[in-house]
Amino acid sequence: MILSPAERSYLYDSLSVQPPVRPDARSAHQFRPIEASCSFLPNSNGSSRVRLSDGGEAIVSVKTQVVLTKNESSLISIDVDINKERDDSNFIKNLISSLESILLKKFPIEKLKLTERYSFKVYIDCFILSHNSYPLGLLSLCIYLALKSTRLPLLTSTVNDREIEEQPTFNDDWEASKKLFEPSEHQDDPPLLFVVGIIGNNVFIDPSNEEEEVSENGLIVGFANGEIVPPVQSTNLSNRDSKGISPKHILKAYSMVRNCGKEVVKALNTVVSSDDDVFTSIY
Amino acid sequence: MTVLDIPKVAVPGQPLVPSFLTDEGDSISKFIPGQGTKLERLLVQDKNSKVPVIIATILGKVKIYERVYKEEAEAEEEEEEEEKEAEGKQDQEQEELKVRTFIISVVPKSSKNYYYQDSQDSQNLQKLKELEIDTNIEEVTSKNQEDVIINKSLSNLPQEGDIVLVKILKLTLKQAFVEIIAIENKKALDHSARTLINNDSAPPSLYSSIASTSTTILQQVDIGENFKGIIRSQDVRSTDRDRVKIIESFKPGDIVRCIVISLGDGTNYYLSTARNDLGVIFAKSHGGAGEIMYAVDWKTMICINTGEVEQRKCAKPF
Amino acid sequence: MNVQDRRRLLGPANASPIVFSDVKEKKSKKIQAKPDDEISKMFINTGLVKNCDGSAYIEVGNTIIQVSIYGPRPIRGSFIDKAILSTECRFLPYLSQPNDSISRLTSSTSLITNYNGKLNLSNIEQKISSYIESCFLSCIYLENYPKSSIDIFIKILSVDTNLLNLVNDVVHCCSLAMVDAQIESKDLITSGNLRYLKSNNHIIMDPKCKDKDKDITNEVVEEGKLDLVVSFMNSRNDEIVGFWCEGNDTLEDDVLEKLIERCNDMSKEIRKNINFYLIESLE
C-alpha cells in the first residue's frame, strides 16, 4: 500500500499520541474481529479457516501419515502457500521458519509415537487466500485452531513391534480417536505468535496494513500457556522510516501479549469447542 | 578563546558538536552540518530533553570551515532569527552576542578533491582564525556555492545542480541518451570506471585526467551499472531552443559536460548543456573512428590532423 | 583376442589399487575454554575485496565471515526516492549450517536450484539475511540515495558456533563493510549475544558452543536455555535495531531486562574495539 505524505503523517501522529488512536478505533491491545471455523475439511485430521475484517483469509489443514521413525528427520512439516508468491521467496521462508521455530519447541512429539518403529508424521499445510497485513498473526491463529481440532485415530495393534514386524492398524471408529491437543492440566496448548507494531512510545497488537506502513519497527512475540516463549524477534513491517527501539518497547510488548494472549486463547478454545458452527468472536 | 573539544577523526554515529556553543559568554558558535555529517536530536547524559547534535555519518577526518559573509549587513539580518533562538538557551543579552557560523564536515581518507583544499587541521579557534585570512576562504564567501556545499551529502550520486561528465550512447530526434561517468568533485561513479581509471580509489581529478585516461573511459564496457541520463533537445542550449538538432549537437561516444536539472524518472536523470561552460569537451571525428577534435567556436570542432570540421555543441574550454 | 569386458573402460592390466598412507589424525590442540564473562577475540580487516564499494572480513575463533557491499547502484524501473536495501547471506556449499531447530525441517528443499541455476537460500540463510536487513534499514540514511539500491552480500566461509552467535559476528562484519563503503549511516551497529541458563541463573557471554543436533523426538532438550542477540546503535542512545531470542524457556520481564542490559555492555565493548580499529585505519 502506498500512502501519501499527508496520510502517512496523519496516521503516524495519531498512532504516536498517548493513548494511540488507531484508524479503526481499536485500543492498543485489541485484535481485529475475526471469523473462525474449524474441522470442516472431511479429509484432514484437523482443519481451520480464519477470516479477518480486512479481507485476509487463511485455511490450514493438518494431515498425518504413518512413517518409519528412523527414516524421518522430523515428524512435523509446515508448508505455507500464498497466492501469487513464489515458494522460495524470502517472505514465505521467513514465515515458515518463524512458525517452525515455535511449534517445534512446544509440540507434544511423544503423542506422535505409535510403536517402537512407527510414528505419525504431521503435515501442516497453510494456504493464505488473501492477506493485506503481515499474515503471521493470522496464520498463527489458524494453525492453533487446526491443531486444536486435530484428531488422531486410535491404535489397535500392539505397541511393541521391535521383535515382530507389524504394520500398525487403527480403530475405524472416528469417535474413538484421540485429540492431539487434549485439554488437560499437564498438556500444553499449541503456541501462538503475535505481531506487535511500534510507533513512537506506543506498541499495539495485530497491526493493520496502514498501521504497518507507518510503524517504525515490529516485534514477533511467541506465546504459550500464559507465558512469553521464544522466538521473540524484531522485524520490519514496512521498509520505510524504520527506527530503533528501546528495551521499554520490548517490555511493553511483552506485557501486552501476555495479557491479551490469554483472552485470545480463551476465545479460540470456544471456537474449537463449538466445533463446526461458524463463530464470530470479537475481543 | 577556548579550544573546541571537537574530535579530529570520527566514526559513523559519533556526536561531533552541539549545534550551538558559547565561548565564555561573549560569542556563540553556530555549527552547520556539511558533508558527511547530519543534524540529529539526541539525548545527552545530564539532560532529559533531546538536544540538537551534529553527528558524523561516515568514517573520516573532521574539518571545520568558518562561514564569512561578504555583505555583513545582509548576513546580520539573517542571523537575527538564529540569535533569538540562541538567546533562549543562553539567558543573555542578545545584542552582545556575536554569532560565528562554522560548517563542520567529515572527509573520508580516500578523497582529496573537495571544494576547498585545506592542509591544516583546523581544530581550534586559533587555527580557524588563520583560515579566515587564508585565500581559500574567498571561495566560501560566495554564498551560492556555500549553500551547495551544505546541501551536498557525501553520496556519490548525481544530484540536482551537479556538474557531471557523460558519454553519449544513443541519439533520437528529440533527445540524447547518455550514461553518467563521473560527477565533478566527487569520486567516480561506477565500479568499473573506478578500477579502470585509477587503481587506487582516489577520485580522478576530472579535468586533468580526462585527456590522459580518456582511452580507458571510452573502452569501458557497458555493464549496465551506470546511471543513465537524457539531454532533451530543448536543454541543449539556452537560445534558439526550438531549432536545436540533436544530431548537430552530439555524436555517440562524445564526452559531454552537463548539469543535472532533475532526478528524472526511474531510469534517467535529466541533464542540460544550456550554459557556455557546458557541452562537448571531448570528441573524435567520424563517429569515433577519426582523431581527437578541438573546439573552434561554440558549435564547431576541428580535427587538427585532417582538417575535418564537425558540428557539436561545445563547452567553452577556458 | 581374449574375452574382455567391453562394456566398461578398463585400466591397464598391471594396475594396482591406490594405497593411502596412514594419515594420523592431528591431535587438535585443546582449546582453552573462554571464561563465560569474556568476549572472544576477533580479527577484522576491511577493503579486501577491490571490485566492490566496501568490504569487510572477520574471523572469530574458527568462524570466518566476509561481507561485500555494492552500492549505491542504479535500479531499473520506476522512480523511488529512497534506496532499496537488499541482503543475501550464503554459506559456502560444503558447510553444515548451524543446525538449529529451524533449519532441520526443510533442509531437503534447500538444495533445489531455482530457475537461474543458483542454489536457493536455505531457511537459515534467509533468516540471517532478513535480520541483517531489518537492522540496517533503521540505520542507513536511505533518503540520501534516491533511485538506487544498496546490496549486501554476506559469505560465510567457515562456521564453528551456534546460530545466534554467528548472527552476532555477521552484524559486526556488515557494519564494518558499511563504513568501508562510505554509506552514510546514523550509527555503527554492534551487537551483543549471550546464553542464559535458567537452572543456575547463569549468563554465558558470547557463547561459542555448537548446538547439539537434537534427537528427532526432541528428547535431548536441555532445560531452561535462552539465546539472545540484540543489536544496538550505541552512540544513538543505545537504540535497539535488532532483537532475536531463541530458546526453550519462558521469558520473564526482569530477566529479559537484565539480559538486554548485558548485551548492551557487550555491544559497547565491541564498539570500542571497532572504533579503535577504524580510527587506527585512518592514520
UniProtKB/TrEMBL annotation, chain A:
Listed InterPro entries: ExoRNase_PH_dom1, ExoRNase_PH_dom2_sf, Exosome_comp_Rrp42_subfam, PNPase/RNase_PH_dom_sf, Ribosomal_Su5_D2-typ_SF
Keyword hit for Cytoplasm: yes
Top-level lineage group: Eukaryota
Molecular function in Gene Ontology: mRNA 3'-UTR AU-rich region binding
Cellular compartments annotated: Cytoplasm; Nucleus, Nucleolus
Domain Exoribonuclease phosphorolytic positions: 30-153
Cellular component, GO annotation: cytoplasmic exosome (RNase complex); nuclear exosome (RNase complex); nucleolus
Signal peptide: none
GO term, biological process aspect, one: rRNA catabolic process
Primary residence: cytoplasm
Gene3D superfamilies hit by this protein: GHMP Kinase, N-terminal domain
UniProt entry keywords in alphabetical sequence: Cytoplasm, Exosome
SUPFAM superfamilies: Ribonuclease PH domain 2-like, Ribosomal protein S5 domain 2-like
Family as reported in the entry's similarity comment: Belongs to the RNase PH family.
Annotated protein name in UniProt: Ribosomal RNA-processing protein 42
UniProt source species: Pachysolen tannophilus NRRL Y-2460
Automatic annotation (TrEMBL), chain B:
Origin species: Pachysolen tannophilus NRRL Y-2460
Subcellular location(s) of the protein: Nucleus, Nucleolus
Signal peptide, first to last residue: none
One of the record's GO molecular function terms: RNA binding
Record key words, sorted: Cytoplasm, Exosome
Region (Disordered): 74-93
Coiled-coil parts of chain: none
Domain Exosome complex component CSL4 C-terminal: 157-263
Domain of life: Eukaryota
Xref: InterPro entries: Csl4 (IPR039771), CSL4_N (IPR048626), EXOSC1_C (IPR019495), NA-bd_OB-fold (IPR012340)
PANTHER family: 3'-5' EXORIBONUCLEASE CSL4-RELATED (PTHR12686), EXOSOME COMPLEX COMPONENT CSL4 (PTHR12686:SF8)
Residues of the Exosome complex component CSL4 N-terminal domain: 12-66
Chief location: nucleus
Compositional bias of kind Acidic residues: 74-85
GO biological process: exonucleolytic trimming to generate mature 3'-end of 5.8S rRNA from tricistronic rRNA transcript (SSU-rRNA, 5.8S rRNA, LSU-rRNA); mRNA processing; nuclear polyadenylation-dependent rRNA catabolic process; nuclear-transcribed mRNA catabolic process, non-stop decay; TRAMP-dependent tRNA surveillance pathway
Protein name: Uncharacterized protein
One GO cellular component term: nucleolus
TrEMBL record, chain C:
Any one GO CC term of the record: nuclear exosome (RNase complex)
Keyword entries, A-Z: Cytoplasm, Exosome, Nucleus, RNA-binding, rRNA processing
Superkingdom of origin: Eukaryota
A family per Pfam: RNase_PH
Main location (coarse class): cytoplasm
Identification of the protein by name: Exoribonuclease phosphorolytic domain-containing protein
BP term (GO), one: exonucleolytic trimming to generate mature 3'-end of 5.8S rRNA from tricistronic rRNA transcript (SSU-rRNA, 5.8S rRNA, LSU-rRNA)
PANTHER family, A to Z: EXOSOME COMPLEX COMPONENT (PTHR11953), EXOSOME COMPLEX COMPONENT MTR3 (PTHR11953:SF2)
GO molecular-function terms, A-Z: RNA binding
Sequence ranges assigned to domain Exoribonuclease phosphorolytic in this UniProt record: 41-184
Cellular compartments annotated: Cytoplasm; Nucleus
UniProt family annotation: Belongs to the RNase PH family.
